[in-house]
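Hi all, posting the design record for the shared folder.

TITLE: backbone redesign
STEP: 1 of 1
STRUCTURE INPUT:
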């Protein structure tokens, strides 16, 4: 029961983070339009742009690291010492990694 509550709390926090990120993205887009009329907002827009570029670079690095892990799991999973339990665990781990990669790719496309 404790784990279920922790999972629920994690999902709620993730939804709140997503909502905050969406608000920030909307503010950024609004500022981009307004900054052409107000030169003082240009620095704020530049800061937002730099933040999003750094975030994108970080997500790309995470994606590449997960790709390496996935490739490594392929190699290990196909090894001669793999038993049925190990193979199932490897498949599950790889599935989780691919799920995370898909999430990161989706975020990079925003």
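Okay, here is what came back for every position:
SEQUENCE:
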């Amino acid at each position: 029961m404790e784990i279920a509550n922790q999972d629920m709390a994690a999902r709620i926090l993730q939804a709140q983070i997503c909502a905050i990120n969406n608000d920030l993205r909307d503010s950024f887009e609004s500022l981009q339009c307004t900054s052409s009329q107000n030169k003082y907002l240009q620095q704020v827009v530049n800061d937002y742009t730099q933040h999003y570029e750094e975030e994108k670079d970080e997500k790309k690095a995470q994606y590449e690291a997960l790709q390496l892990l996935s490739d490594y799991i392929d190699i290990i999973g196909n090894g001669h010492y793999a038993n049925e339990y190990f193979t199932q665990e490897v498949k599950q781990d790889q599935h989780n990694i691919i799920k995370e990669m898909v999430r990161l790719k989706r975020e990079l496309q925003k």
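COMMENT: Residues 2-108 form one domain.
Let me know if anyone wants the other runs.
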